[in-house]
Amino acid sequence: MRALCNTVLLLGAAGMVHAAERPVLMAEEVVVTATRFSDRYVDTPVNMTVISAEDIRQSSAKTVADILAEQAGIAIHDFFGNNAAATTIDLRGFGITGGQNTLILLDGRRVTDIDLSGVQWSAVPLNAVERIEIVRGGGAVLYGDGATAGVINIITRSPAKVGNGVTVQGRLGSYATREAQATANYFGERAGFNVSANNYESDGYRANNRNRQTNAQADLRWLGERTDLTLKIGADNQGIRLPGARTVQPSAGIDQLATDRRGTGTPLDYATRAGNRATLDWRRDAQWGEVHVGAGWRSKTQTSYFDFGGFPDYREVDLDVWSLTPRMRIAHRAFGGESTLVAGFDWYRWDYGLRRSNSPSNIGRPVNAVDASQENAAVYVHNTTRVSRALTLNAGLRAERLRIDATDRFDPTAPGGAFGSGALAAGQRESERAYELGARYQFLPELALIAKAGRSFRFANVDEVYETSPAFANQFQFLRPQTARSSELGIEQRAGATWLRAALFEIDIRDEIHLDAFTTGIGNTNLPRSRRRGLELEGTWSPLPALTLRGAYTYVDARFREGVLPGGFFTQTNVVIAGKTVPLVPRHKLNLAASWAVAAGTRLNAALAYVGEQFMDNDEGNTLGVKIPAYTVLDLKLIHGRGPWRLAAAVNNATNERYHNYAVRSQFVPDRYNAYPLPERNFTLTLEYALR
Predict the structure, then answer these.
(1) Residue 3: band (very low, low, confident or very high) from pLDDT cuts 50, 70, 90
(2) Domains, the chain, with CATH or none
């Protein structure tokens, strides 16, 4: 860790020399995630990356998950490579639980839910995104549960910031991929709207992986002299076939990754998902500051069918989410300098319903009917003080309460219910707190040092507590909240088109919520202590007016600090995890990108990603002897625009790398594992017309 600190300090010294030689004033970039209000970036002591609409337009990414994968500190696990379906984001080395330790927001509201279905990344097309703000290692005070690794806020386009007009786009690609998008925007003197819709269809790289996704959304805004009102509505619908895994077992001579990479062992499996959302936000300026009141509703209905070799499982899940998030910002000088105090109240309620049967035709009489309601209520305060022109300090505190009640109605006479069981009704009440302290010292207008420390927490969700006993009887197994203490030191230089950032971080975790696959009948559990340490480097440089270069490197050491998994009758026993590496966390990750304006209206983009080897899921003991191999993927994209037309041709995985970034070890057969191969070389062609 000391060597890494020296690296940061050396980078800082080099940056000060460079800045002293060529001082350049920075634009005052405005961000919202760091304080939940619009603030200047230079007044926020946070480690933040802002991805603008222009950055997205110049990238080779096709989905929000793709653009996030290019950033420092972020790894992804993609099961199919088909429009980011079943893709999880992992920030700062949490592995399979990365999706529960990184809080995902859409326009400031959480879309990380109380189940394990994951974020529907494809429900927000890239052309609807204004910018993405990534706050690493912070956000627990302002946003609460699940922000241990940080917060990613996807901010959709405002009609007030987009020129009036209509844009239509069509895309064709490998694996019978086709997509159509349309966007219309109008804004008058005070009011306007932005509406968009898209439809995506693809057969997918794998057999039985056809994917259909449709989205529609609208943003209506009225901007007064001191009052703003925003209404946003959206809907999404997905139907996807599930190809399952490719199995490798050397002792039995099985290697489907080599013999039938694109095949399927689950030709009958599928899933569907339909969602709706609506939010209403009211904002008003006052002499003493600003007040914001937000209310939201979101629903999703999911179905899934897994054949399990003739022992089918069919599920329907309904989830409704209600939220109320009033907050205020008060300007004051209580601490001797220009200060702002943000105070607010967050209330979220989830109503969850699960129905299980052996077929869609029998779901009217389910074997299990699980109903759960969860309510989170929190208050928080967060103060930022400009002590001097160079020094900014912040401090915050949050108190949050959880209430969850769950029931399971079991019908042994229902079709498929002869060998089932039901869980006794149960509930849980928990209280947790978060705090953070931060400092930003602006050595020069272009160079700043950032230091942070804080405490965060995570509550187990419904899918994590509905498990089976050692006798395989269904039960609700409520877990202790996970807590973490984190610290961070970073340095940042922003000078004109050049941006450099280096950060060291450490996260110590207690009672980590995790799947114990080795202990039969236990399910999810609270693990012994673990730790994440790492280094993040990223930057942007324009050596020529026509050329922009970007780079990001991540080093993560994620380890269990102590503990033994006891195992069970059918699995390994006494699996020592103390000192072992957390599965699904690559130690090294490198991203390089270039965007070159070849000629007027023509641009060539290239993105190279290297991801180091990883231990497989379920290999907490690091004993399998086989890892997910390291891989390198190159994407190329040529864009030509003329007048209202824009044509883009892309080659994805140009070097035809045969790779996968998710695999899971069997807990029953010592040398058996399942892997999910991702697409080889493929092509897309996009045509866009914009009427202004």
Answers:
(1) very low
(2) 2-336+345-488+506-691 (2.40.170.20)
